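Hi L.,

As promised, AraC family transcriptional regulator:
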Amino acid sequence: MKEVVNCQAIELGISDLKLKGFKVYEITGDLSKIPTYNRRDYYKICINTSKSLIHYADRGIETDGTILFFGNPIIPYSWENISTEFHGYACVFTEEFLKAGDRSETLHESPLFKIGGTPIFNLSPEQKVFIDSLFVKMIEEQATDYVFKDDLMRNYINLIIHESMKMQPSENFFKHKNASSRITSLFLELLERQFPIETKNEPLTLKTPQDYAQSLAVHVNHLNRSVKEVTGKPTTAHITERIINEAKALLQHTDWSISDIGYSLGFEYPSYFNNYFKRLTGTVPKSLRM
């Protein structure tokens, strides 16, 4: 028997995931409420057929038709279903569960989950049939007592991942070439891990290149050289852009006061936040409020 659940219930709590490290389910019905824009504690692969608006990081992505979506614990997102009907399948899992299969790289380094990517694939009818069949098999196996079920689940997840990687040009995939590439990747990952801001009472702690260098146990000059060499932009530019993007998200997706948003981003006084935001965007924070 297939397990059919409401997407909201899955987003609000997955007890099986904490116990087993994975959960697979079919989604059907109408989503009338927008899931909260936040970061999850798990990885997610989802196929669905509907018209949707996905708020991913600081972007809004409209989809219409069948898509395959990859979500990770670093990038915040929410999913608004525009269609009157929604149908699909999803699998959520922890990195520890998948790494038990002896994967050599972390999921953070995977082309499908990496920072800065757009993890949404439009599927052809043939691709939809094949990916759907994998999810159906996973749901069926999930209900069995097969002793090697976890290994089988990991194989299915990896098969979906590899089928998706085949949809992208190989030049989009990369491995770290040197120490500069590696330290830059660690910096970008640490930067993303500071967000989203989930409480207005605990201000952002890592705000300068020195803060990040200390957390990464490297000299700030080494960090700055590496980041500039790999990305072409200074470390401060990455930090500034991410703070501004988070400020925009909080202004658009929360009802926090502007002073609370400024404080959560590390600005002691509202005037400091207003001046910082205006200098970098050319407008005041209040202009982003609906």
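Residues 1-14, 31-35, 170-174 have pLDDT under 50 and may be disordered.

Thanks again for sending the construct details.

K.
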